[in-house]
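Check this.
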Amino acid sequence: MSDAWFTWHTAPDGDPEDGCDPQEAAALKDYIHSPTVSPETAARRITLPVTNEPETVRKGQSSDNLYRLWSLIIDALSDLPEHRPKIVKLLQAIQKLSTPDRKDYDAKQRQISWAELPNFASLWSDLKVSNNWRSGIIKWTPEQREGVRQDYIKQAIIDAKLVVANISGISISWGLECLCDTLERSDAVPDFEVPATNEWLEIAGERIFEASDGETIGSLRERELWKPEGEGSKQRWCMWKRRLQSMADNEEHGLETREAAKKAIEAMNAVAK
């Protein structure tokens, strides 16, 4: 991987005021490239610029500095898929960093509850493809449409991996939302949503299976194509499988969509044996 990626993140468009701290970029680069740097060591190094900056200096700017750290890690998750497993382990290690006891706390330093990864999940959610993408789809060129489609699928992969890794703030409800929108809405866009559904089921199928009997509120709210039929466990799970089978058999869908539907069914069968 080129050094240019890290250089750009310390000074996007040549402006260092908008970039991450050079120590953060260096810590991430060393961790990614070195087989001897542990996630725990990298977590301590990459968070030092945030925790060591005096609160008096950071007043009114602390959220911006944390934002830049999270932006660096989020971009790495998105841009560097070959290193994604290591980056997820880095986030897990950051979550385990201790918060100083009050008696040991240096008032000049910022005290952060790293276990909560403050604002990480909300920033990741804000940077994802807008929930209003369906309304814009008819206006896009084929190139724009394919770019958004690939981003949507990539986000499902990252979301699911973060859920399985128990990253703070990343909820299985995001996966349930994806499946319900794909399989229960009459205006679903199969070539976007079926591959994304497949990624969720292949990566976090057990979590989806466990949560699929939840209350019909929030992400599991009723949509046009889902009508509960009395009581019974896993009704929704079975309905999803029937919908996927119909998509797999429907030659009006493209080959990628049909193959993704078949793989999603395989993932469901592996979970609910």
Observations:
- Residues 56-62 have pLDDT under 50 and may be disordered.
